[in-house]
């Protein structure tokens, strides 16, 4: 499954176009390597996603084409969630 589709189906990122944009800017790594939106994802991969002030690390536990909203969290396991504080 493509990275951008997985992020949308799992609801880590709500829209596929936004997931594609973030991936193509180099803000997502898969098993330590910078990933593009077309990168294939497999069960067991570790994803690190850098949002504005947050970094989310997850492990892929399942791949499905579609899931209901309440089942989306079963597709991944959160490893770490780091917040950067901005002091200005």
TrEMBL record:
GO terms for biological process: rescue of stalled ribosome. The keyword rRNA-binding applies. Keywords: Protein biosynthesis, RNA-binding, rRNA-binding, Stress response, tRNA-binding. InterPro entries: RqcP (IPR025490), S4_RNA-bd (IPR002942), S4_RNA-bd_sf (IPR036986). One of its GO terms (molecular function) is rRNA binding. It holds the Pfam family S4. Associates with stalled 50S ribosomal subunits. Binds to RqcH, 23S rRNA and the P-site tRNA. Does not require RqcH for association with 50S subunits. Key component of the ribosome quality control system (RQC), a ribosome-associated complex that mediates the extraction of incompletely synthesized nascent chains from stalled ribosomes and their subsequent degradation. RqcH recruits Ala-charged tRNA, and with RqcP directs the elongation of stalled nascent chains on 50S ribosomal subunits, leading to non-templated C-terminal alanine extensions (Ala tail). The Ala tail promotes nascent chain degradation. RqcP is associated with the translocation-like movement of the peptidyl-tRNA from the A-site into the P-site. This is RQC P-site tRNA stabilizing factor. It comes from Liquorilactobacillus mali KCTC 3596 = DSM 20444. The lineage of its organism: Bacteria, Bacillati, Bacillota, Bacilli, Lactobacillales. The gene is rqcP.
């Amino acid at each position: 499954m493509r990275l951008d589709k997985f992020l949308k189906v799992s609801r880590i990122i709500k829209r596929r176009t936004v997931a594609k944009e973030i991936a193509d800017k180099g803000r997502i790594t898969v098993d330590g390597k910078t990933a593009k939106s077309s990168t294939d994802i497999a069960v067991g991969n570790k994803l690190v996603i850098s949002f504005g002030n947050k970094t989310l690390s997850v492990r892929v536990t399942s791949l499905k084409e579609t899931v209901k909203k309440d089942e989306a969290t079963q597709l991944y396991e959160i490893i770490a969630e780091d917040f950067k504080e901005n002091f200005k």
